[in-house]
Write a structure and sequence with these properties.
The chain is mainly alpha-helical and 215 residues long. It is built from eight helices and two strands. A hairpin with a 3-residue loop joins strand 1 and strand 2. Helix 2 runs antiparallel to helix 3, helix 4 packs antiparallel against helix 8 and helix 6 crosses helix 8. It catalyses: a 1,2-diacyl-sn-glycero-3-phosphate + CTP + H(+) = a CDP-1,2-diacyl-sn-glycerol + diphosphate.
Length: 215
């Protein structure tokens, strides 16, 4: 099986698990969020071994906040009778997934100038553009279909950029640590931290806007 096939199969399985847990909500989704945060922290701790206590504390916050944000979005989001926490959670997922998929295929197909060669040599400006375009289309379409707040139509693009910045942040950590992936247990993907690094800023930003009453 090719690397792309492995990556696609594992990706589909992860998406399916996330969607089922999101649909069920309650304890199933809480358990998934807690498990994900725990695995992320274990992988983070391995990356920053020997870097000092501050990095361990930062990692704890980094892994905990998105889990709490996702739970808040799923269970607490209300939009005056239209949309729901589940709908908004799917929007968060679509921004992250579409950015990752769009960037991957646009980067491979177009190539061109590198986005941040000193941090992640494989990422390109074309990949970033492809990710933003894919996220805007996918998440924007979902926002319309689910009658979510109009702000989410234009927020998809900047949040897609934030997702890529989250990816670059984790890439910078790995480069400093001299490791390629945060783990090896997800064929074609590396570790869970490698897959959820883009979700971290999108989840936290969405929950922050919701808490501030801007959604």
């Amino acid at each position: 099986m090719s690397d792309l096939s492995k990556r696609s199969l594992v990706g589909v399985m992860m998406i399916a698990v996330a969607l089922v847990a999101a649909l069920l909500g309650g304890w199933p989704f809480a358990i998934l969020a807690a498990t994900g945060a725990t695995i992320m922290y274990v992988e983070w701790s391995r990356i920053v071994t020997g870097w000092g206590l501050g990095w361990k504390v930062l990692g704890f916050v980094y892994c905990l906040l998105p889990a709490l944000a996702l739970l808040w979005v799923r269970e607490r989001a209300e939009f005056d009778g239209v949309g729901s926490g589940f709908d908004l959670l799917i929007w968060v997922f679509l921004v992250t997934w579409a950015t990752d998929i769009g960037a991957y295929f646009a980067g491979r197909a177009i190539g061109g100038p590198k986005l941040a060669p000193s941090i992640s040599p494989n990422k390109t400006i074309a990949g970033l553009a492809g990710g933003v375009a894919a996220a805007t289309l996918a998440a924007g379409s979902w926002a319309l279909a689910a009658s979510l707040p109009g702000a989410l139509l234009w927020l998809a693009a900047p949040f897609a950029i934030a997702s890529q910045m989250g990816d670059l942040f984790e890439s910078g950590l790995k480069r400093r640590a001299g490791v390629k992936d945060s783990g090896t247990w997800l064929p074609g993907h590396g570790g869970l931290l490698d897959r959820l690094d883009g979700l971290v800023p999108v989840a936290v930003l969405t929950a922050s806007l919701l808490l501030a009453g801007w959604l």
